[in-house]
Amino acid sequence: MSAHAVFVLEANTRSVRYSPKCSYSLQEPYTMSRCRLLILLLLVCGSVTQLQAQESSWKAGIAKVVVTPTEPMWMAGYASRNKPFEGKIHDLFVKSLALESPDGKRVVFVTSDLISVPRPIRDALEQSVAKKHNLAPESLMLNCSHTHCGPEIRTSRWSRDGLPKERLDPAIRYVTLLQTKLEQVVAATLADLKPSKVAFCRARCAFAMNRRTPSATGFRNFPNPDGPVDHDVPVIRIDSPDGKLRAVMVGYACHNTTLGFYQLCGDYAGFAQEYIEAAHPGATALFVLGCGGDQNPYPRRTLTLAQQHGRSLANSVETALLTKSKPLDGGVKAAYGTAMLKYQSPPTKQDLETKAKSTNQYDRRHAERLLKQLQIEGALRSEYDAPVQVIRLGNVVTMVALPGETVVDYSLRIKSELGREAGPAIWVAGYSNDVFAYIPSRRVLLEGGYEAGGAMRYMTTVLQHGPFAPDVEERLIKKVHALHSTLAD
To answer: What is the pLDDT of residues 423-432, one digit of tens each?
Structure first.
């Protein structure tokens, strides 16, 4: 029924016409029942008009920019790589979605086909959009797909330590270009704000599997069908007032590690976005990585498999779009803060000097950097301020954005503790606003292995000596609850 439909009562002909699409006549004198019918029709028309007005009172802006490197440079994700990339499968993108609620409050989501979101990049963009667009820190969320077939992003002193000039210079130039393009895409998104229907829907997708498998020598990276997973596919859909799909923002909790070759590629997430956009010409697909720190796509290691996983996720999105979507109501609420995460007791100088003589090149290099840090700063890092963000979109969906390579236990716990049958759906994202380390749950930390602290020897965006303290999960969850409580009605 059109929002502009009009019922006309003509006293002389005693007819009631629904314009423009239907008409009928009452040729006999009115009865009370016919009057009630007329009133009911008028009320229905008014209700539909009001509903359509609510659906279109939101505004949405969408933009994207290519961030594919234009000069030879090294790739991120695997320490064993030993040369620059050799071509591309497809372009890499930064994409942005801005939502403005009926009361004028805005939130901007920025997604990227990149390995990480280093804190300096988040901080620089936050300051820029606050100055240029009056956008508050809590209203800006950055997320990366964590593709392992993208460029290096080196922003810190330690991430640049010891690199030869021919490798370091392109990385520095790329970061400068990336920061400019991030500012441009947010500005374009806000300039694109226009009336839209905004709704939430969801489906499931099953190619992700827990990768932590117990063995005689500890936990190893191997498919574990009995490990915890999160197969939820949450979707925010954006339609124009006439019903044409403008954009979808899609979540899934799984590493983008199907591929490990020397060609630039967004992995399964890149292909999923391609397939969705091909199926809906003119629409933009954005990918938000969930708590996939201990989740891998299986099977993997070939381009065909990456495409198949991308098709699987795209099909899940198409399924979600077929379900009954929940239009956003109310307004936007957001909160942003930090959780102080503690590390376990640091190694001594003597411990590091011994480790610096190791035959393992990664252990040796890690120890050498920590010795430099000890010499320059006088101490090793004892804690880290990790950003946490909660965004509530109407009374329909609440997104919890966690930092780092967060393992799946966080998503499952937060959904369990914050989810209510009659309340907003809970969407938990990892890899947001600051990707600086794996963040294990208490279970994973006690089990040990790569995600529990072993990976820290490879990470240099933030130089860290070793595992987090056993209360890491409680500290992060406590901050989530504190921020969430500030958004309560």
So the answer is: 899 999 999 9
Q: What is the mean pLDDT of the chain?
A: 90
Per-residue pLDDT of 237-267, as tens digits, reads 999 999 999 999 999 999 999 999 999 999 9
12 and 150 inside one domain: no
Residue 289 has pLDDT above 50, yes or no: yes
Which phi and psi (to 5°) does residue 399 adopt? Answer: -100, 130
CA distances in angstroms from 469 to 54, 291, 355, 395, listed in the order given: 48, 20, 22, 36
- 269 and 368 inside one domain: no
Residue 86: left if φ>0, alpha if ψ -120 to 50, beta else—which one?
beta
Contacts of 43 (CB under 8 A, 6+ apart): none
Q: What pLDDT does 420 receive?
A: 82
CA distance 59 to 61: 7
Query: Would you state the pLDDT for residue 5?
Result: 37
Residues 68 and 215 in one domain: yes
The pTM (predicted TM-score) of the whole model is 0.88
CA distance 131 to 122: 14
Token duo for residue 61: 């802006």
Whether 216 is in a domain gets the answer yes
Kindly state whether residues 47 and 179 are assigned to the same domain. no
Question: Amino acid identity of 457?
Answer: R
The pLDDT of 448-461, averaged and rounded, is 95
Structure tokens at 3: 């929002």
- Answer yes or no: do 64 and 46 share one domain: no
Q: Domain of 41? A: 6-55
Q: With cut-offs at 50, 70 and 90, classify the pLDDT of residue 363.
A: very high
Q: Do both 108 and 81 map to the same domain?
A: yes
